[in-house]
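Appendix B, Record 12. Input sequence as logged:
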Amino acid sequence: MALIPGTRLGSYEILALLGAGGMGEVYRAHDAELHRDVAVKVLTTVSSDLDRLQRFEREARAAAALNHPNILAVYQLGTHDGAPYLITELLEGETLRGEVSRSRLSMRKVVDYAVQMARGLAAAHEKGIVHRDLKPENVFVTRDGRVKILDFGLAKLTPPQERPKSGVPTLTEGTNPGVVLGTIGYMSPEQVRGERSDHRTDIFAFGTILYEMLAGKRAFQKATSADTMSAILNEDPPSISQIVPTASPALLRVVQRCLEKKPEQRFQSASDLAFALEALSGTGSGPISMGAPTRQGRTWKWVAAGGIAIASAAALIAWKWLPPAVPHVGAVIQLTDDGVPKQGRLVSDGSRVYFNEGEPGSWRIAQVSVHGGQTASIPTRLVNPHIAALAPDGSALLASVGGFNDFADPLWLIPLPAGEPRRLGDIEASAANFFPDGRIVFTQGTSLFVAETDGSSPRKVLDSTEYLGTPSVSPDGKRVGFTTWSGVGSVTGLRETAVDGTRQQEVLKTGADFPSPRFGTWTPDGRYRLFQNLSDGRSDLWLLPEQIGFFQRLQAPLRLTNGPLSYTDASVSRDGKQVFVIGSQRRGELIRYDEKFHEFVPFLSGISATDATFSRDGKWVAYRSYPDCTLWRSRSDGSDRLQLTYPPTVVWFPNISPDGTEVVYSTFGNFVYISKMSGGTPRKIAEQSVAANWSPDGKLLVLSTWVPNKHGGEKNIVQLQILDLQSDKISVIPDSEGKLGAYWLDQHTLVAATRDTTKLLTFDLTTEKWAELASGVFVNWFISLDRKYLYCTTGGGEPKALRIRFSDHKAETIVSLKDLRRVVDPYFGTQVGVAPDGSVLLTRDVGTEEIYTLEVEWP
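Logged structural output:
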């Protein structure tokens, strides 16, 4: 609908068309009653777009609830010939987009505009209004320098931050989560993900505008929308100080804090943001003062003293309220593209990155240039070597060599670029690393040792009550950091100790924010400690600030990455400028091997799941989703799906009861639960145990349980126990220490493996005798529904899926797994299952897992 000059809308007379504005046309009009010119915004083609009408009405209600000099004033909402219109104050000037695109703003203008925007946002947030589409086009600068926030068409109307005075209107409407709203390039990470947003979303958008006013270009602008959204989630924009060297460091810290990926790390209110900016301007109100003329004599001295006092006060306020500069990722560069699974420690000598690829039991060492390109293997006669560290002079790799599930493995030195490996003394270690002087630090269960460069004279320096993860040595060689574990899969925190084992202290304790942290390494300058944290199926990198100066404040852990990839096994380059990581996007495809046609085919429509287990009649299946590891059940055709557990619970080893009504499973931290197949609250039945399995009559469970080791060495050792579900009585299986993963063959016979998984054994409960079933390098095993076969996956250079018949111990190769990329559990290797028809079940890895470089900009 077009309005012609002279048209009257009540007391308003249309004077002229000003142009298109937002969702309609904007006209200049005259208010005959109040004798002022106003703007009239008319929404066109309403009947064809209900969403536009709702946005128009939302804008009117949101703006009408506000009365602030930095927000466009709305006078009236009405309709004319079926078209709604909005009467607002008339602005003369231009949008911030026009001013920024024409020339770079002075620092004085940047802070002045920013203070006014922050005040306007604070007023909106106090009324419970979140703009959600803040951008330079929606910020208007009048001819006299007044900033006005426009267009609340995407505003989210929520309960106000503070209870308003009686009679002040508030708005409580919102938008469903999962709907992405906003303008690409100015959206917050939570908007990009379609998550629920709040007032801190506007603070992120404010940061992008402030960045653009300072740098003269957008903070997030890539070749495609998808790339831009990925940058918002994962990358920090280029440093402003490189573009504008004269920019105030305190102002840059304001920008950095506004652009934090995690909402709780940003300014928590626009009022705090405005206060911080006002401290930079040197005054609590108005634009920055340009200073006063100087005078001679005492007057000059008093003015100078007053100026120093004001500057000092402003600096102190800024120090208190502004966040310190923090490291951020400037770019993410992919180095490999070979599609081979990777895992374990990355190390670099400055020109090459060395890493493990393959699968547990079949690891090999590979290398790639720090600039990317083709990967190449490091030739060695060692079977299943696993990189532990790189020698300080870069001459050799330190590697552990042994079985898939060994408690401790021999350490070897592998010369670079080639040479004959040599064993380091008699050391057997769970994990190891180098001191800067070449000495070796290693863990063995709950103990920490130090040895000479050749592996001689190992001496225990620390004996803990918890298991110790990969040790990391500070650059000055005086401290050792490590992850602590209460048992398999249960991280308790990060600790450090002096080299002699004294002055132990907790660095980070597990909790809601850090459910599963793993110690990484120090940066070469010793200012930060890098660690990874696994949460909700994804691992991100964090930094612990180390050095605190006189005017520096102790900082909480700093997030370095925030998806979309999962980053693990990080290593810092020797110059500290790069972080090498394994970046993965996890996705699996459940498959079965069709022996008739000799091919793998999708099972349950190829869902991303592992550990499928079936009811005895084959009608029901339980499985854990991948990668979040939650428990689900469905019918065997995939219908009637029901989720039984929820994050942050991590599930392993599900097993359906013989009557098909319950499922037993293990969780992170070595707890065992039973859930009804129909859902409901699970009940905990055991602690310090994993891999529970039902007896044929459903009355007993066999458990792999961690118990104190009475024979020295490892403090705890796995043992097989039987739990009577009717009496809760626990009985220990004779001579079962060091054995695990038991299944029932019948009511009187069990099958299990040795701790190093090189032998499969049977146990007769009547005679209490063990007998060997098979030997080899076994990664995982599962019993068939008819209990006639044991299905296994093996390691080594030629991994395969086997079927072992219990009646005569005959082993049959089902299929080679050498060329099949499989999902690998970081703790329990490749899972295997058996379909009701006897087909072997595996999970094919269809995600990505490559080596990346994170270019880090340090403050």
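The CA atoms of residues 761 and 832 lie 18 Å apart.
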